[in-house]
Design a protein that fits this description.
Layout: H1 2-20, H2 26-36, H3 41-81, H4 89-115, H5 118-140, H6 144-147, H7 150-160, H8 165-172, H9 174-202, H10 205-235, H11 246-276, H12 282-287, H13 297-306, H14 308-338, H15 342-399, H16 401-410, H17 415-446, H18 451-484, H19 487-542, H20 547-568, H21 573-581
Helix pairs in contact: 1-2, 3-9, 3-10, 3-11, 3-15, 3-19, 4-8, 4-9, 4-18, 5-9, 5-11, 7-8, 9-18, 10-11, 10-15, 10-17, 14-15, 14-17, 14-18, 14-19, 15-17, 15-19, 18-19, 19-20, 19-21
Length: 583
């Protein structure tokens, strides 16, 4: 943890220099700032306050993502490799089970949000998850033969014919499917709504710009570690006797970890609320003054649909979901062809998570640079661009694999293996872009919205649009599977659809960028005013009387720095004005 603090301080210093000096004279300034750091309360006064928020948030994010990776790898293994099931179950599951559950959850959440305090809401949401995963490892999985209606499923399949393998398999392995849905919900609910909602509630725009991409770093360390964990538990089975069900044992181990970390998350949340929040309450209180009437569910959906800003955000999320999905399911069916047994499959998924972690880690470091140098628009455009390129590669390998076979053989590969690897690269890329660029961009876009839109818009976009995107992709696939007979036959059409969706996504990014930049500027101005007011008080809290003068100077200095930055931005004022009028 110590090294983490040091690292974030070290990252802050050069960035501060970058703001003041737009010419190469930074090094002496840097040295001066390093030397002055113990004396100047500016450094400590602001930093410690920020760190008190950022470090617990980072740890919390780490635990949530560690769990998510374990759950995500496990849910696929359970559902895809179960007897009488296959990768074709996934699109049906996403639409007919996942989406209704997500919408149901969102309705419940909106109701609860009006009744409970923010803290009570957090615990009410997270504890059922912890309980379920514990129960699954220790009760549901060991009792699976008693609770799964295998005979009924066999009769149904015989009656309906083989193209209905997917829907029947949902009934056949319903407890696995429930696990799958809970794992997916952990992703959308706990990460998006609970964690990011909490983070947006306690951080300011400036802190967000600096630290949101860093959370991503934590996320990837989590991915690397949990990938190793999954692999370790998957390979544990090789050392057991022949009669033992190894998968049950490794599942129990993994679920125990999930439950433990779930409790840790709740603990950190409690700690931050008890010891940190009241000290750094200024920005939070400031924003809550706009009291809006509580909206009913239908009305809040109306508000969301009527706001162009939220519509664009929703497009971003839905397009991301659909495009990832179109490739992912095709890739998973190829993956099952390559690795048929649960052990091999799970072990590959472990490696895959680790690779994703490493890739994202690199992307993150780039992400901060990109956000700072090129701004929001460029950062948000990168994800769809990468998806477009790798998607084209993946589909062309599958479709035109035949003529390439002899060429591949010289490299010691088959087109299938190559497709699995390109698909894996595509998934790693799109996921790493998601954590390092897509998520921070999306979350930053929420901050300028007012409190009520933040809570409601967030729930609507993250809980409904996320699955909507996934189910959108899944619906397209089901339609294809049922009309063309199998996933493989429908691949060329999926490629075409992918192209259209990514283009729509690029359009939404451009539209949002024109609205976000002016809003963010207004928000920053507000925060500067606030800072100027709170400067003296902070200085006295730190306990150095003469510090207040230095601090005021420092804050003015930073204001000038950002003013210079703004004047350098090649943005025409007319577009800004029209942006503000359209609000």
């Amino acid at each position: 943890m110590e090294s983490g603090l040091v690292a974030s301080h070290r990252l802050r210093v050069p960035s501060a220099a970058a703001h003041h000096h737009h010419h190469p004279a930074a090094p002496p300034h840097l040295l001066r700032q390093r030397r002055a750091s113990p004396a100047s309360p500016k450094f400590l006064g602001v930093e410690t306050k920020t760190l008190k928020k950022i470090v617990p948030l980072g740890l919390m994010f780490f635990c949530i993502l560690f769990n998510y990776t374990i759950l995500r790898d496990t849910k696929d293994v359970l559902v895809v490799t179960a007897k009488g099931s296959s990768a074709e179950i996934i699109p049906f599951l996403k639409t007919w089970v996942n989406l209704p559950m997500a919408i149901g959850f969102m309705l419940l959440y909106t109701k609860l949000a009006d009744v409970l305090s923010k803290e009570a809401l957090f615990y009410t949401v997270i504890f059922p998850f912890i309980a379920f995963f514990g129960a699954f490892g220790y009760l549901l999985y060991p009792m699976r033969d008693a609770i799964h209606p295998t005979a009924l499923a066999d009769r149904l399949l015989a009656a309906l014919g083989p193209s209905f393998l997917g829907p029947v398999a949902i009934l056949r392995v319903w407890s696995f499917c429930l696990f799958y849905v809970m794992a997916e919900l952990w992703g959308s609910v706990v990460i998006s709504v609970l964690f990011w909602g909490f983070a947006n509630q306690i951080t300011t725009v400036e802190e967000a710009k600096e630290f949101y991409p860093l959370f991503g770093l934590g996320a990837n360390v989590a991915l690397i570690f949990s990938g190793r964990t999954v692999k370790y538990f998957s390979n544990m089975r090789q050392n057991l006797g022949p009669g033992v069900d190894g998968w049950a044992i490794s599942l129990r181990g993994m679920m125990s970890i999930v439950v433990l970390l779930g409790l840790v998350i709740a603990g950190i949340y409690w700690g931050v609320n008890k010891f940190v929040i009241d000290k750094s309450a200024a920005p939070v209180v400031e924003r809550k003054k706009k009291d809006k009437p509580k909206l009913s569910m239908g009305e809040s959906l109306k508000v969301l649909v009527s706001s162009r800003y939220v519509r664009d955000l929703a497009t971003l999320v839905v397009a991301y979901g659909i495009s990832i999905n179109l490739v992912e399911v095709t890739w998973k069916s190829k993956l099952k062809a390559q690795y048929p047994s649960p052990n091999e499959y799970s072990s590959f998924m472990g490696d895959f998570s680790t690779a994703t972690g490493i890739a994202t880690f690199t992307m993150m470091l780039l992400g901060r640079v990109i956000l700072r140098k090129f701004g929001w628009g460029v950062a948000a455009t990168i994800t769809p661009a990468v998806l477009l390129l790798t998607g084209v590669g993946f589909f062309s390998l599958i479709l035109f694999g035949e003529p390439l076979t002899p060429l591949m053989a010289t490299l010691g590969m088959t087109p299938l293996l190559a497709a699995v690897y390109v698909g894996a690269m595509q998934n790693i890329f799109s996921k790493s872009a998601k954590y390092s660029l897509f998520d921070p961009c999306k979350e930053m876009a929420y901050i300028p919205l007012d409190e009520d839109m933040k809570v409601k818009g967030k729930a609507a976009i993250d809980v409904v649009c996320n699955p909507l995107g996934k189910s959108g992709g899944a619906l397209i696939q089901q339609f294809m599977i049922l009309s063309f007979g199998s996933l493989a036959n429908s691949t060329p059409y999926l490629g075409g659809i992918l192209l259209v969706i990514v283009l729509a996504w690029l359009g939404a990014v451009r539209s949002l960028d024109s609205q976000f930049s002016p809003l963010a500027k207004q928000e920053l101005e507000k925060e500067k005013m606030l800072k100027a007011k709170t400067v003296e008080t902070t200085a006295q809290v730190v306990g150095s009387g003469n510090g207040s003068l230095q601090e005021t100077l420092a804050s003015e200095n930073s204001a000038n720095g950002s003013a210079i930055k703004q004047s350098q931005e090649p943005e025409s004022t007319t577009s800004e004005k029209s942006g503000q009028q359209s609000q």
